[in-house]
Amino acid sequence: MDDRVIIRFNHVTKQYDDDLPVLDDVSFDIERGKFYTLLGPSGCGKTTILRLIAGFIEPTKGDIYFHGQRINHVPSNKRRVNTVFQDYALFPHLNVFENVAFGLRIKKIPKADIERKVKEALRFVNLEGYEQRAIHEMSGGQRQRVAIARAIVNEPDVLLLDEPLSALDLKLRTEMQYELRELQRRLGITFIFVTHDQEEALAMSDEIFVLNKGKIEQRGTPKDIYDEPVNRFVADFIGESNIIVGTMIDDFVVEFANQQFTCVDYGFSKNEQVDIVIRPEDLELTTAELGKLRVRVDSVLFRGVHYELCCYDAYGNEWLVHSTKKAEIGEEIGLHFEPEAIHVMKRSGGE
Amino acid sequence: MKVARLYLAFVFFVLYMPIFYLIYYSFNSGGTMHHFESFTLDWYKDVFDDTRLLVIVLHTVIVALLSSSLATIIGVLGAIAIYYAKHRWKQTLLTLNNILIVSPDVIIGASFLILFTIAGIQLGFTSVLLSHIAFSIPIVVLMVLPKLQEMSPTLIDAARDLGANEWNVLTKVVLPYVTPGIFAGFFMALTYSLDDFAVTFFVTGNGFSTLSVEIYSRARQGISLSVNALSTLLFLFTLLLVVVYYIITQRTSAKGGQK
Amino acid sequence: MRRYAYAVPYWLWIALFVIAPIILIVYYSFFDIEGRFSLVNYETFFTPVYLRMTVNSFWYAFLITACSLLIAYPTAYLLTKTKHKQLWLLLIILPTWVNLLLKAYAFLGLFGTYGAVNALLEAIGIGTKQLLFTDFSFVFVSVYIFIPFMILPIFNALEKLNHSLIDAARDLGASEWTTFRRVIFPLTLDGVKAGCQAVFIPSLSLFMLTRLIAGNRVITLGTAVEQHFLVTQNWGMGATIAVFLMIAMAGIMAITGNKKWGVRQ
């Protein structure tokens, strides 16, 4: 086994009673020192993967390896992983210091070492001087940091983060995204981060796993996933997109909205039905005559940095456009885009 | 709003009148509860001279402290067992738990009387103590269980995640978390025990008596102002208990970090 | 099941002090005073004497519950409007910590022929009345004793009520009375039910009050159980009455619903 691999899932299935499996025959490797994100809608199985790694639950089928050792039945208190919980799960009866020291005390580490390590961990998350505070005196962002300090003080090989930013407001969340990424670089350990927020995933990760209905739909770098979604689900989930049905006429030629366009995709069968994705920010506003597509503006929303235009073409397809230019409702405009902006995907089954 | 105030004032007046009426006449040298002759502390002296009564007070306190301590231990364990029980068992267990709370006292008393007679347990201290433990356990469970249920299950996950075994989880997380509930349960059990009359009346033998039973037999013989003096002392003791309880819960909740 | 080993004392308690007593009561109800197996107790129960006693018990319990509710609801409602409501609530609870018998005993003095109440009646020109050993005094003292148990759950239910619901009702044009009738009362019904449970069931079985205050004029099922167990030593008959009390209790629990058991405080 490749010694960079720290966790391996081998055909892992998790099923409760006779319900549909929450995780369905999933295999993947996790390498050391990287920042992973499990991304997907609620109920997709992302938290299940986390709980399987942490040891709170055991797989129904398949094997989980940690450093090459099968750990299916190793209880969570014997695993070298630590978790940052969604609700932080800080012990309300203990102060900040004792919360962070909890794991070390259980390992019966000498008092002086505990003192030193806890201080160090708190310094790491910028909470020096807060040792004696009670948990309820801490703000949401500070609790978040305590939870992280409590986990990293045990020097785990893998840190699991279960939607840790979801309870924070937007500004704090963005700040923490930077901090977490920075923290991971400094510690050099593996982070596995669970979220349903695609922006968060794109901003922080080395590698993203997009999950849906207990299966991994796509894995790859944020850029891969954003630029080359493998199917409609990923494209839709990873960002607001225009997804329409088209036909692959030949290599590098695709037809949609009753027109043929040059594209950069190839290798499909002739006249294969495909899904076409064009990102709203890849569409440029121009006059009706100059545009590749002619559409009518249906609504305009001001979004701060850009306008969001909702337009319809003559065939009833909806086109979402992000543009710094403004257009009037009812106006006929043209849309321009580059061949690289067209992403052609195999049609996903059943859609 | 004036009517509202009057109404509340009236309710509180009626609620406290009998208690202060008792206290007032405990200082009456006249010996009745309707004509106040002059101030005296004789009745208090009577109470403290009455060794039989003092022994009964001692018995009552011993039974109360012992039964509520034991009931607290068993009840906390029971609450934890119910908390961990599978869903379909949980409801059954809760129903069984609550039977003694909703049962009329006479039924508890009568059925325990049968139980002790069949088991050959001499009626007296043991039977009273066992009964008090028995009817206090479900109260402790009901005070502790909501605290357990309000505890986020991720706290237990978190403790395991940080290396805690089952015993650590119990002693370092669960028990400290539910401490306010345990205190509340203990105090409730204590007051139920001190207050109980009906159950004790059934299962106490001739040689053993608690304060409630003693007051009942004295009250049946008519008015005696030493009972008034005794009730004044008890009322003050109750107040003291309330204050102590209040301080303890305030302190634990401040430490426990509830908002 | 090994994980539940620590709870063995609790399991024992359930077996010995919850299940066994019920079985024993039912078992004893089938034995007559001579210790022979028979259904005579059940025959006796269905004679007019006991049936009237049952009806009486229920009637008194109903009266006590109804009076408690009538007084308790406005009290609880007004309490939620006061400043320092937790303190006032504590003052409502405090008397429950005074021994029940002492409170009953106080009424011996208050309601006595020369007691404070009669002195008051005399002063306002009504004249002295026989108060002790009447139905009135029995109901009054019972209500007095039980009322905190009625106020408490109603108060809690009112406190839990989301205040914007009341604002919403007013906003939608409901008068104060309509708001109460259509919004507040239905939403606090759980508290009312819990309170009724807490009053009705024990008042079916009061025996010390009937002895002390009602002077044996009122005989409830509870009094009869006590009589059979401790005076006439006819345990079988006592057990039979207890069986019917338990059936009544189960019926009341079913009617008032027991969903809130686990969370009641």
Automatic annotation (TrEMBL), chain A:
One of its GO terms (cellular component) is ATP-binding cassette (ABC) transporter complex. SUPFAM superfamilies: MOP-like (SSF50331), P-loop containing nucleoside triphosphate hydrolases (SSF52540). Keywords: ATP-binding, Cell membrane, Membrane, Nucleotide-binding, Translocase, Transport. Residues 7-238 form the ABC transporter domain. Signal peptide: none annotated. It comes from the Bacteria. Its EC number is 7.6.2.11. The keyword Cell membrane applies. PROSITE patterns: ABC_TRANSPORTER_1 (PS00211), ABC_TRANSPORTER_2 (PS50893). SMART domains: AAA. It catalyses: ATP + H2O + polyamine-[polyamine-binding protein]Side 1 = ADP + phosphate + polyamineSide 2 + [polyamine-binding protein]Side 1. It holds the Pfam family TOBE_2. The keyword Nucleus does not apply. GO terms for molecular function: ABC-type putrescine transporter activity; ATP binding; ATP hydrolysis activity. Belongs to the ABC transporter superfamily. Spermidine/putrescine importer (TC 3.A.1.11.1) family. The complex is composed of two ATP-binding proteins (PotA), two transmembrane proteins (PotB and PotC) and a solute-binding protein (PotD). Part of the ABC transporter complex PotABCD involved in spermidine/putrescine import. Responsible for energy coupling to the transport system. This is Spermidine/putrescine import ATP-binding protein PotA. It comes from Anoxybacillus pushchinoensis. The lineage of its organism: Bacteria, Bacillati, Bacillota, Bacilli, Bacillales. The gene is potA.
TrEMBL record, chain B:
Its main location: membrane. This is Spermidine/putrescine transport system permease protein. Belongs to the binding-protein-dependent transport system permease family. CysTW subfamily. It comes from the Bacteria. Gene3D superfamilies: MetI-like. It is found in: Cell membrane. Pfam families: BPD_transp_1. Residues 57-245 form the ABC transmembrane type-1 domain. The chain crosses the membrane at residues 7-27, 53-84, 96-123, 129-148, 169-191, 229-248. Keywords: Cell membrane, Membrane, Transmembrane, Transmembrane helix, Transport. GO terms for biological process: transmembrane transport. It is a multi-pass membrane protein. InterPro entries: Bact_Polyamine_Transport, MetI-like, MetI-like_sf. It comes from Anoxybacillus pushchinoensis. One of its GO terms (cellular component) is plasma membrane. The keyword Membrane applies.
From TrEMBL, chain C:
Residues 54-256 form the ABC transmembrane type-1 domain. It is a multi-pass membrane protein. One of its GO terms (cellular component) is plasma membrane. Keywords: Cell membrane, Membrane, Transmembrane, Transmembrane helix, Transport. The chain crosses the membrane at residues 12-31, 58-80, 87-111, 131-155, 191-214, 234-255. It is found in: Cell membrane. GO terms for biological process: transmembrane transport. This is Spermidine/putrescine transport system permease protein. It comes from Anoxybacillus pushchinoensis.
